[in-house]
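Entry type: protein chain
Record version: 2
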Amino acid sequence: MANSETTGFDTIFGRVAIEQKLCTEDEIKNCSEEQKKRAGTDPGALEQVLIEKRFITHNQAIRLKQYIKDTKDPKDSSGQIPGYKVLGKLGSGAMAVVYKAKQLSLDRTVAIKVLPKKFVQKSDYVQRFYKEGRLAAKLNHNNIVAAYDVGEVGGLYYFVMEYVEGKTLYEDLSKGKIFNEKDALDIIIQVGNALEHAHEQGLIHRDVKPKNIMINTAGVVKLADMGLARETTDVKAAQHEQGKAFGTPYYIAPEQIRGEMDIDGRADIYSLGGTLFHMVTGRVPFEATTPSEVMRKHLKEPLTPPDHINTTLSAGISEVVEVMMAKDKNDRYRNMDECLIDLLAIREGKPPVLARQKFNIHALHELQEGAAIQRPEEIFEAQLKEVVAKYKITIVILAAVAAVLFLGLIVAVLIAAR
């Protein structure tokens, strides 16, 4: 490798090592200075110096090089995407790399999602990639990231979509931000509108979470990433995925964890409720050290009402979140339209009528099953009886003490009279 090529790769290697949090900027700088000192002899590659100084391990260096290879910028590839000029990398995840680009024909900025090379040879990944583009193209809503194009050129699979100048909700939450009730509702209602549209088109998102909720510089919320979306009529996909958990552990609905076939929009309502819970409390609904334990809690443990954690919250928002995140999907809102009615009501300072009906129905079910449910006046009478009983016991004890003291006084008088 020529010296200029080595230097260029070292720059990329150092940047990626920092991005992956394997070492710090100071450690990279330290090793670069060491390379300069060795310039007259054998400076070696940056990765070698990092390993020598034990800032990274040999295996970490191998994984970094593979990662760089897999996420190579398409503008440096022979398979450049026709009609687009790549401007830079926006980010990457387990399943794709996203670039900022210019669509030359319309002179507009777009985002291009590229399937990493390691997945290109796997037909199921390619099919899922195309499916995401096709499903996203069915949607046309201001609160959903728009899909423009999907295709392949020179072995490079790409998906062109709307570029959102802004941030994800996750960026705020990861910094520990706790949203006030109004701001949280403004965001969640916009996501709710997006989900309502998707559900009307027969699509379930199945991965509603803060990382997939974007907020542009004008404050408009955009729901992104249809990678796990599924059509409600796609029986074949439902059968294929039966018994498998698809979703993100912190926000996943119980029926998704169980891998049920008949997943519907209520799974998205649960995940949206989990996101709202996180926004107003500053923590996820269920915490644990492993994903499997988190999912077990979604299935088994009762939800702590949000207003028990953040006491500044209204009872209304807590009731809505509890209905959205009911373990049994039949206890949730039947659809996103119902959920939005209550969300809009509490934003206007009104009670969530539908949520309270759900609580009342739950109480009726308990009565039908023979559970004892006391009326307020019954509770008062029981409390009054308890107070009277305690009072009577106190009187008896005081009388006994007085009697003992009186007898003692008589004995003392008799002794003194002798």
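Comment: The domain at 74-162 is CATH 3.30.200.20 (Phosphorylase Kinase; domain 1).
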